[in-house]
Amino acid sequence: MQNNIRNFSIIAHIDHGKSTLADRLLEITGALSAREMKEQFLDKMDLEREKGITIKLQPVRLRYKSRSGEDYIINLIDTPGHVDFSYEVSRSLAACEGAVLLVDASQGIEAQTLANVYMAMDLNLEIIGAVNKIDLPGAEADRVKQEMESVLGMKPDDVILISAKMGTGIGDLLEEVVKKIPAPAGAPEASLRALIFDSYFDPYQGAISYIRVVEGSLRKGDMITMMSSGRQFEVSELGVINPHMTAVSVLSAGEVGYMAAGIKNVSDTKVGDTITKMIKPAENPLPGYKEVKPMVYCGLYPLENTDFERLRDAIDKFRLNDSSLLSEPESSDALGFGFRCGFLGLLHLEIVKERLEREYDLSLLATSPGVVYRIMLTDGSDIYVQNPARWPLPQKISEIMEPYVKASIMTPNDYVGSIMELCQEKRGTFITMEYLTTQRVMISYKLPLAEILFDFYDALKSRTRGYASLDYEMSGYEVSDLVKMDILLNGEIVDALSFIAHTDEAIYRARAITGRLRKIIPRQMYEVVIQAAVGSKIIARESIKAMRKDVLAKCYGGDITRKKKLLEKQKEGKKRMKQIGRVEIPKDAFMSVMNIKNEK
Amino acid sequence: MKNKTGIYIHVPFCPRKCAYCDFFSRPLKDKSILDQYAQALQKEIQMYKTVSGPVKIQSVYWGGGTPSLLDTDKVSAIMVQLRRQFVFADDTEITMEFNPESGQRHRLRRFAEAGINRVSLGAQSFFDDDLKLLGRVHNSRLVYRVIENIHAAGIKNFNIDLIFGIPGQTITSWEANLQKAVSSAPSHISAYLLQLEESVPMYKRIEQGEYRLPDDDSAADLYALTRERLNSCNFVQYEISNFARPGKECKHNILYWRAGDYQGFGAGAVSLESSRRLRVVQSAEDYIGALAADKKPDVDILEEMNEAEKAAEALILGLRLCEGIYIDEFNRRFNTNLIHDYAGIIKRYEDENLLHCEKGRLYLDPRAYFISNYILADFLS
After folding, report:
1. Where are the domains of chain B?
2. Is the confidence at residue B53, as pLDDT, over 80?
3. Does the beta-carbon distance from B373 to A561 stay under 8 Å?
4. SS3 of A227, please?
5. B280-329: per-residue pLDDT in tens?
6. What are phi and psi of B185, to 5 degrees?
7. Interchain CB distance below 8 Å, B370 and A566
8. Is the CB of A548 less than 8 angstroms away from the CB of B220?
9. B152-175: buried (b, 16+ CB within 10 Å) or exposed (e) per residue?
10. CATH entry 3.20.20.70 includes domain B2-257
11. B303 touches chain A (CB under 8 A)
């Protein structure tokens, strides 16, 4: 049976059609009845469906009868496309022998296409190329095939043309999968080694782990050992996802499934850990995963201070499902107790915050996001600062360094000029430019991470009509001329609004931010003065006049019910505000401080 | 029921619907419905069972719509029916809303004979441009004439309704309006900021940019002017939008703001029975039909409040009154401790000098009137 198992992921740039292809595969293999079928079936979270993106990897087991009449078990892992979630992709790939690479027939190869292919190549996966969306009017399948040949070295004849939306070519693709992707190699009689590639918390069963059995086999009732911690558990349930969770008694080498073992303590099941058996344990764990380093940090605070413990518990449980989230407790004069959290990017931050709020019924406030700075102090030591509120006094600083990335931008050659202009504006240093084809160019720049995080991507999209794509990786720290900027409301520093800016941009940023705060802070009972300061020097000032009208002119017997509802609504609105001193600030204000798009 | 000291009668017909109006009323197409409606009102009152030992009725209020459209004899008959059913005080205030177009002299006289001792005139403005924009049927000439008629009918106690914040209105024209109202020698002036529900035609026209409402600052300036002018002419403010000669405050409306119980009659009429707010079916036909068949009209329960909700309501209504809340009375009524329960909120607004807690009363500072929602919202638990 192991010979007839195929494990693969679909990889692609965002929006090239992964989830649609997954839908079609579910449909064609009969995993779902027509009645059960809905778009983005594997995107389980409401949030994913609302945003039309995949956030979490999701495995599913399909049955396929090949054209030659053989029965196969295919494990497909649907993966996210956005760069912030590439960690999810890398974990998925490690559980597979192959990958289907999707490229949009009108967009061609984009930055994350490459990044994902490199990731698959590093793991020695068999890659099957497919050009998707060939039904669209703007499709240029031949050109894209050529690109795939010149950039990725794929033979044009091997690339399959499909339309996941229409269902065209899906049969051919499945044939390629069973033909080209190798069967899993691990010996079923060897000592057990199973990789935990994802997990989540179930209130009844405890941690549920998604596992790939690499060698040996695992049965319900087996006593297992987590190789990183040595902790032992009894397997209470094993199963496969087809696409509903279906219990099985055994998972053998090559299979993908889920496992519950009454693990209540979140820290006892680590993504990337290897499971072995108590009896006849394996000697060495599987390679596991690299620890991911967060790119961006912000404070998460409960809107109600009394929710701090609930937030702590929520973050603990959440980390099981998203190990890339890092957190440690911190406190703020303005906001009370909360957590400083590290994220893979701004989208990741936004998604985590929203998931915590939805899945754990919390109302959270995020402070302005920032990167981690390295500061050399005058006493010779150096520190890493994630929170602007912890910035040392200027006289103690000898040198400040900020993180840089190597950004790869792929673009039609028409836009090279405007992209270079953008990168210069963002304090970038040119590295290389390479023509992938006569039309397509890859530009590399070294850029401060902080610039990339905030508005770079939007600016890039708008200057290239959406044609350019971006991928980046950390390249290290470099000395930079930075200052800490404080925001004062009615003369008092709000520590949660402090941020770090480049000296050249300080004034512009200060103006933009005070202007923005003026717009988003509603009029209060008294005038509110907003100031931006570097040290004791005020460099920008705005004021919000006192509120003058907020009244129900008429309120008599017949309409009291309705008028009361208005006031209740108003009260709900007030609950979404955070009281800082005498000023009520919308909770989104903290996030939006950084979110200034080309207001220059 | 035994605590009801007020009666409200709703007449949901108007010659035509005004552009800003969101009350339950409709244009009158067939006048014959007016008599049927009056008949039904009389029947509804007749069928109403008074509990033994009722307290005295302190106020009756004919509202609408345009109650002055009703036949004077029919109103007279209904008043007789009310007196049969309820015990009136010696000085029961009996108000009828009038619109200028239905205020002929002989009618006013006949209404006065029927017992109407207070008139509330929906003048809204003394300027034709304003009236046209509001979609009123009347013009300024009619306003002056009906004021004459009110005086001629010997009705001393009358109110003039005015609206400010009408598109195109200026500080000067509003000031002139106030002046004209004062010169008309009413006993009471209501001055309302124009506020539009999304459902009214005027709202759509403003959305479409046909004309604009004044911004918050201009509206606040108009309000400040209103308070200053009327108070200086001895129209003493007693509620956010209401001013009266001392002793001529509207008893009926004060009953609402004191969260007192009252009985409503007529289609769409609302009643308050301690914790329950009820509303008669909002259809004149259904209402008439039911009563013609000797049945009670359908009544919806709009709200059922627990003690705390009731107290919160009494609080947000009472704070509309300049006198505010009488703390001891409030505590006895709701078996609570107002100052203790809302200590944080009271402190906060006292610190801002927007709320006062003195002489046994909790009341808003005049500076808070026009931003009162902001404060009242906090008192809703």
Report:
1. 2-257, 324-380
2. no
3. no
4. coil
5. 999 999 999 999 999 999 999 999 999 999 999 999 999 999 999 999 99
6. 55, 50
7. no
8. yes
9. ebebebbbbbbbbbbbebeeebbe
10. yes
11. yes
